[in-house]
Amino acid sequence: MMESRDGRRVVITGLGVLAPCGTGVEAFWEGLGKPAEPAVERTIDDFDPQAYGLKYAEARRLDRFAQLAYAAGKMAIEHAFGDEGLARYDEWRRGVVMGTGIGGAYAWENNAQVLTTKGEKGVSPLTVPMVMPNAGAAAVSMRLGLRGPVETIATACASGTHSIAAGAKLVASGRCDVVLAGGSESCQTGVMRGGFNNMKATSPTGISRPFDVARDGFCSAEAAGILVLEEYEAAKARDATIYAEVLGSGSTADAHHITAPDPGGDGAFNCMRLALEDAGVDPSAITQVNAHGTSTPLNDAAESAAVARMFGTAPGPAMTSIKGVTGHSLGAAGAIEGVALALSYLHKKIPPTMGTTEVDPKIEADIVLEWRDWEPAPALSNSFAFGGHNGSIVLGPI
C-alpha cells in the first residue's frame, strides 16, 4: 500500500453487519445463500436499537441510518476484542471512517412535513444533527470512545468501499492503531422511493438478479457494515483472528454522466488497475471479484466488460454479486460487500449471485451462481456510484 510507513500492514480483525439477509456475521453469511422474497425495498425488520444499548430517548435523537451505524460499530468491536474492547489502544489513535450516500433521510422528510403543517417553529431543534451525513460516524465515535480522525465519505454507492480504503491508509501511515471503517444507509422514504422509481432505476418486479438476461433494476435496501482495521504486527501480538489483509485500493471518476456509467468502462477499468498497482498484485493473481453488480442493465454490462478487459476471460476470476439477496444499500453497499469478502477468507467459499438464473450472454465473466469452494488468494471488491465515482479495494490472505 502506497501510504505504508515503516512496513506497516493493515489487517481485518473484526466485523459488524446488519442487512436484510441477516444481522451478525453468522446470520449474514448464511443469508447470502437464501433466496429473497421479491421486494423493491428491503429492510432490517427485526432491528431494535435498544438491543444495542440505546435507550428510547437516545434512539429518538438518532436517525435510523445513524442507529444502524452505531449498532454495527458496537458489534464489530465486540467481535474483534471481546470484553476488552478498545482499551489497549490510545483513544486519540482510534479512528472512524464511515460512508453514506444520503444521510438522515427520515428526519429530513418528517421535518419537511412538519414545516408544511406547523411552519418553521414546529421543526425539531434536532433536525440538523439527525440529518447531517456525518451523524453515523459521530454516533460511533461518541458512544464507543474513538477520538482520533472521525470522518465521513459521501460518494454515493462507492462510499463504503472508499471508507475502507481511507481507513486502511490511516493505519498504514501510522496515524491510527485501529480504525472502524464501513458504511450505513437507511432511506426507504417517500421522496427517495419516488426519485429512484421515476428515474426507472429500481426493479419493477422486486427481484434483484445481477448479470441475468432479465435484470430490470436494483432493489433499494438499508444496511450497515463495519470492518475493524488494525496494524498486522499488533494484531498478531494479541493473537487476534485475522480475516484478510487490505493490500491496496483505487479511486477514479467516469467524468461522463450523473447516473449512467461510462459505457466504455474506462473509469472502472482504471480504478481496478490502480488498486492492483497499489497492492503490488498482478491481475493474474486475482481469483475472486465481489462485483458492484446492481442488477441494472447498463451497470452490469459496463462492469463485466471492464473486468473482462482487466483480467481476460480464459477463464478470468470468479465474480459474484451479493445484491441478489441483500438488495442495493447505496452508501453501505461497499461496506457489507467488504464484510462478505472477508468472510470468504474464513469459510473458503464464494457466495452465490442469488436471483440470477440465466446469465446474459453478453456478460463476459464467470458469474458464480451457487456456493463455490475457493482457495483464499488476492481478491477485489468494486463499487461504482452515481456521479461517476469508482472505488476498488484489494484484499489478500495472511
Architecture blueprint of SSEs:
Elements lengths: L9 E10 L2 E2 L1 H7 L9 E2 L13 H5 L3 H18 L12 E6 L5 H14 L8 H5 L3 H10 L5 E4 L5 H14 L5 E8 L4 H9 L21 E2 L1 E9 H6 L6 E10 L12 H14 L8 E3 L6 H15 L6 E3 L2 H4 L6 H15 L1 E2 L15 E2 L4 E2 L5 E6 L4 E8 L2
Parallel strand pairs: 3-7, 4-5, 4-6, 10-11, 10-15, 11-13
Antiparallel strand pairs: 1-2, 1-8, 1-9, 6-8, 9-16, 12-14, 15-16
Helix pairs in contact: 3-6, 7-13, 10-11
List keywords for this structure.
398 residues, globular, 12-stranded mixed beta sheet, 34% helix, two-stranded parallel sheet, single chain, alpha/beta, 16 strands, 20% strand
In summary, what is this structure?
The protein has helices at residues 25-31, 56-60, 64-81, 105-118, 127-131, 135-144, 159-172, 190-198, 232-237, 266-279, 297-311, 323-326, 333-347, and strands at 10-19, 22-23, 41-42, 94-99, 150-153, 178-185, 220-221, 223-231, 244-253, 288-290, 318-320, 349-350, 366-367, 372-373, 379-384, 389-396. It is of the alpha/beta class.
